[in-house]
TrEMBL record:
Gene3D superfamilies: Glycosidases. Belongs to the glycosyl hydrolase 1 family. Substrate binds at residues 26, 127, 171, 297, 401, 408-409. It comes from Caenispirillum bisanense. This is Beta-glucosidase.
Amino acid sequence: IAPSRPLTAAGYPRGFKWGVSTSSYQIEGGHDADGRLPSIWDTRCRMQGKIANGDTGDVACDHYHRYPEDIALMKGLGLDVYRFSVAWPRVLPKGKGRVNQKGLDFYDRLIDGVLEAGIEPWLCLYHWDLPQALDDLGGWPARDSAGWFADYAALCCQRYGDRVKHWATFNEFAVFTLFGYCIDWSAPGITDREAHLKAIHHVNLAHGMGVDVIRDLVPGAVVGAVHNRQVVWPEKDTDADRRAAALLDAHWNKAFPDPQLLGHYPDLIAESIAPYVKAGDMAQICRRTDWFGLNHYGPIFAKDDPNATWGFHWGAAPDDADKSDIGWPIWPAAFRDELIGLTKTYKLPIYVTENGMGGNDKVDDKGEVNDATRIRYLTLYTDAMKEAIAAGADVRGYYVWSLLDNFEWGTGYQNRFGLVHVDYETQKRTAKASYAWYRDYIKAARAAE
Ligand code: GBH
């Protein structure tokens, strides 16, 4: 592959989009405000020992009430794009049936505010907060879930489609299905092969049906999906760990983009999933979308574990690897190679819909947060992205995870990913050094256009 378009002096194609990403359950709080009912994450947060420190998303960043201040922070960054998600249990408290107007109103206000700030809203329909009532009916392992999702998508399209043109069906298909139905790291925390396989297939079906709904109902829709992708390496150079890595790779990197964009499940999964695939399903799943959303942090490692659901488990990164403050490997070359590989495999414009670094940031005596390690990470990763673009990767935008420190799922509030620090006692927002760095980076990239 070769660079398809001329690049500016800053190394980006003209019109490259800069943004940040967030998700509903991680920032909104207001868990019982205005008619919202529990999601599977509210349930999980109430189970003993599932979330670090017993944290919950009940209040989170209280974004549900403080969104105007958060939009002002976005505006200060000079963003092109704000990627957020809608909480399904806010707009359809029981997942289907009765619509909650007050919940719908919240996203009206949010979208209008974002547009007024001159920022393009990118709406993701599902960032893991399935209404608990739908899990009670079987959740994703139930085939009906695809239809529930399509109906929910239609409601959002009808309501927001006049103002929102950029839509994503799901965030990180592989993470929430693998962690939710195979490894007990996400809601609903089931560890069962059959439930896992059914969830994979039904979520794929939901995606395909969702794409059709969005295209039918939103004039000029620009539709995509957000995939986590990162190279999987064996923890040890043994046959067993190499097998584990290959199987985790099939689940993590291919089980969703392959059927959605290439029309088939990866070889290592195809046979196990076949019993759940009905005639016409593969045709319903496979849709040429308009863009490919990539969430990428660093490589992952797999090890053989005969007691695990599929015989593989998470492995450890090598001791001598460069690591973030929360221990995740920092490996910009893997990001570069992922971007180049994606362009070759799926041949779609890529938006990096998440990239960023977790830390334990603290406000210092001067009232500042000097997150030099995050600035270093973002510098290394944007440099790697530019290398990929120069080598022909079709990357059109980059969205940092995340605007705010937030509820980091199983790790609670201890891992901070924000460009803005949040004091969870007072809800005070403090822009970190990385906030100013990103603002200036965007400005310089634009000036080079
Ligand atoms: C994303 O998930 C989510 O979309 C977002 O909600 C979340 O807040 C964000 O990332 C940050 O966590 O064990 O060292 O190899 C990311 C899913 C799962 C990414 C596990 C990397 C392994 C780190 N991730 N993970 S390591």
